[in-house]
Design brief:
By secondary structure, the chain is α+β, with helices and mostly antiparallel strands. Among the domains are: about 30-130, Alpha Horseshoe (Serine Threonine Protein Phosphatase 5, Tetratricopeptide repeat); about 230-375, Acid Proteases (Cathepsin D, subunit A, domain 1, Beta Barrel); about 405-540, Beta Barrel (Cathepsin D, subunit A, domain 1). It contains 16 helices and 27 strands. The strands form four sheets. Strands 14, 15, 16, 17, 18, 21, 22, 23, 24 and 25 form a ten-stranded mixed β-sheet that branches. Helix 2 (about 50-60) packs antiparallel against helix 3 (about 65-80), helix 4 runs antiparallel to helix 5 (about 100-115) and helix 10 (about 180-195) runs antiparallel to helix 11 (about 200-215). The longest helix has 19 residues, at about 200-215. It is globular, with a radius of gyration of 23 Å.
Length: about 550
């Protein structure tokens, strides 16, 4: 149903700041001097959030008017998943200090975690009036811009945050992902030589270092398109529940000449295949990895490998990364193909006519068409193509969302990692975030979101299975009408299960999935680069009504 490949690490050393000038709007801001971490910060960095909360509460009790102590407490509560308590804490503090950029930034972080980016935007606008010199505001702005596919703006904001305070570990943790390849490798080596206590952070750092070193060693032969064609149409192949019922659509993909049928899954990332498929193709491990998703069995082990040849329809790619599960099947299939692998193409999923079309994206103004490739490394545009700080050019580096004239009416979606997230109305009562997920057989909703608009009942007859196994507790909701992008679907008995683990991973509240039972009526045109989706529904093509 989905995969998550965690490669973030916890960095607690201090790198020297870049010697570049601040943006004009921040020229007069003071630059932070080296500052030791407080005991509460040390506890939080080490993952001891209970101790950090206790220490911050003591500080707030001693000085209740300190926005720094309150914001530290709010962030700790968010880390503990005490979201409601974090919300009430920051609102109580703002009642006596409405203009504090520190508290407003903390409120924006709470709103992001609650899945309310439209409210976060208003708060950040207010915070910028007084808080242009507050480093963490720029960190939060960076996250917000990235969510909205404004990658150049996100890069600018994290660079500004790091210049204002290069000693903040949270800022540094994001900033390091924007460094050129060799510098990232050097910083990882420094981290691993200085840290051995945090086993999980060390494991993630070792994994990322192995992947980056492999990329450096093979820089001249990185993943690339080698076929002459740059556009293609590929027929879907049905993945069946039984002899008569389709539960999803697949693509035939050849790894080193060995064919596999991978399920088309906008809720997954990259290429994720079973051990058997990898062994038949002769794919060898480069680094151990973990994947997780829907289900109650936790993360699944596996490894990262590189395929010499990957053929999909008329396209052939060379030297591309592939994620492999240690299991003999992936949710009952050979594997999953996340549509984000085609993020350098315009992706058209024509479900009624069972066809995938890949065509060139409209070039950014002032640039030529960028070479198409298979994006299997699961990195965001702002992390992988950072320009030299002094010499950004229109053709290089991260870009802000560009809406071509022919895409003016497309839906602007949020993007976190590979997930395409759509604001969705529930019974005309509330707005929540839903993931566009062709790998989910049915549209579903979290019990918490469902209870806001209808009654919810336990259902022992429904089953939900994902990468991480079966979901134990499944529910159904009474009548729910979902509306998004000018479309609506009415459901009696909508599937409901806890998606809080995914929300924790993404850092923002996801309330459900727009699944195959709805999406298979549509033609989806996806511009991953710019966070745009065109949801096309037309009765004259033989569709059923979406009810």
């Amino acid at each position: 149903m989905r995969t998550h490949h965690r490669s973030r690490l916890l960095l607690i050393f201090f790198a020297a700041p870049l010697s570049i000038s601040l943006p004009t709007y921040a020229e007069n801001c003071p630059i932070a001097q080296p500052h030791p971490l407080t005991p509460a910060e040390i506890a939080a960095i080490g993952g001891n959030f209970t101790q950090a909360e206790t220490l911050y509460r003591q500080k707030v009790a001693a000085d209740p008017k300190s926005p720094e102590f309150t914001s530290g407490l709010v962030r700790t509560l968010l880390a503990e998943e005490k979201v409601d308590e974090a919300d009430s804490t920051v609102h109580t503090a703002l009642a006596t200090d409405l203009q504090s950029p520190i508290l407003l930034t903390a409120l924006a972080e709470v709103q992001y975690r609650r899945g309310l980016p439209w409210e976060e935007e208003k708060t950040l606008t207010q915070a910028q009036v007084q808080g242009v010199c507050y480093p963490r505001l720029h960190l939060v702005l960076s996250d917000y811009f990235r969510l909205n596919s404004y990658y150049a703006s996100a890069f600018r904001e994290i660079r500004t945050a790091h210049q204002l305070d290069p000693y903040d570990p949270t800022i540094q943790r994001t900033w390091i992902q924007t460094l050129p390849l060799e510098q990232r490798i050097d910083e990882l080596k420094k981290y691993l030589s200085a840290n051995d206590a945090d086993i999980e952070s060390v494991r993630r750092a070792q994994y990322e270092l192995a992947i980056l070193q492999n990329r450096l060693q093979n820089r001249g032969s990185s993943c690339r398109l080698v076929s002459d064609v740059t556009s293609t149409s590929i027929d879907f192949t049905g993945i069946m529940i039984d002899a008569e019922h389709v539960r999803g659509w697949g693509l035939d993909v050849a790894f080193n000449g060995h064919k596999a049928r991978l399920q088309i899954d906008t809720g997954a990332s990259g290429l994720y295949i079973s051990r058997g498929v990898a062994e038949h193709a002769g794919l060898k491990s480069v680094a151990r990895s973990q994947a997780g998703g829907i289900g109650d069995k936790g993360v699944q082990t596996g490894y990262t490998t590189y395929a010499n040849s990957i053929k999909i329809g008329g396209l052939e790619f060379r030297n591309c990364a592939v994620q492999v599960s240690d299991r003999n099947d992936v949710v009952g299939t050979d594997g999953l193909i996340g549509m984000d692998v085609f993020s350098s193409f315009l992706v058209t999923l024509d479900f009624p006519w069972h066809k995938l079309t890949l065509s060139p994206l409209p070039p950014y103004p002032g640039t030529t068409e960028t070479p198409a490739t298979l994006n299997t490394e699961q990195e965001s545009p702002s992390e992988t193509k950072a320009p030299a700080p002094e010499t950004p050019t229109p053709a290089s580096g991260p870009h802000d969302r560009y809406i071509a004239p022919e895409m003016q009416k497309w839906t602007k979606v949020y993007r976190v990692e590979h997930d395409l997230i759509v604001p969705t109305s529930l019974n005309n009562k509330t707005m929540r975030l839903f993931i566009v997920d062709t790998g989910a057989f049915r549209t579903s909703i979290s019990p918490a979101a469902a209870r806001e608009v209808t009654k919810v009942h336990s259902d022992n007859f429904k089953q939900v299975r994902g990468i991480s196994g079966n979901v134990q507790n499944v529910y159904t909701g009474d009548k729910i009408v979902v509306r998004f992008a000018g479309l609506q679907q009415e459901s009696d008995g909508m599937l409901s299960f806890d998606s809080s683990g995914l929300s924790r991973h993404l850092g923002t509240e996801v309330s459900g999935f727009l699944g195959f039972d709805l999406l298979h009526f549509l033609v989806l045109k996806i511009d991953y680069r710019d966070g745009l989706v065109d949801f096309q529904y037309s009765e004259d093509r033989g569709y059923q009504h979406i009810r």
